[in-house]
Amino acid sequence: MRIDKDLVAASASPLVLAILCEGETYGYALLQRVREVSGGDMEWADGMLYPLLHRLERQRWVTADWRTPPGGRRRKYYAITPEGRAALAEQRRQWGAVVRALEGVWPSLPSAALPAPGGA
Question: By its UniProt entry, which SUPFAM superfamilies does this protein fall under (predicted)?
């Protein structure tokens, strides 16, 4: 399934912040986790993730530091800050309101009002 780029962009910050609540991690692992939690529906490229991470750093919602694990490659690890957790809590509240609004109107749509999945 292709997800519209506006919807991907709107969900990117809360998704990354939520993943970082699971524990600190590095960019490639974030990309893998996004793919995993979306069931493969969301495939982000480096060109989307790293500008987002830089913005989250500027907002002080994440911190980053370079590390080289024993026998491993040097990687930049990201961690969520208390400010990032507060921002995620607010975004979660807002997304909940959006989901409730959509769930409030979608069941009343007649199936004939929408094309079949994959149809035009």
Answer: Winged helix' DNA-binding domain (SSF46785)
- H-helix segments, the chain: 5-21, 27-37, 46-58, 82-105
* pTM exceeds cut of 0.85: yes
Furthest CA-CA distance within the chain: 59
> Which residues, 6+ apart, have CB-to-CB distance to 42 below 8 Å?
3, 8, 34, 35
Question: pLDDT tens digit string along 71-98?
Answer: 989 999 999 999 999 999 999 999 999 9
* 8 A C-beta contact, residue 96 and residue 37: no
- Domain holding 54, by residue range, is 5-107
Supply φ then ψ for residue 67, to 5 degrees. Answer: -145, 155
Q: Which residues of the chain have pLDDT under 50?
A: none
In a domain, residue 34? The reply is: yes
Q: List the CATH number of the domain containing 49.
A: 1.10.10.10
Helix (H, G, I), strand (E, B) or coil at 1: coil
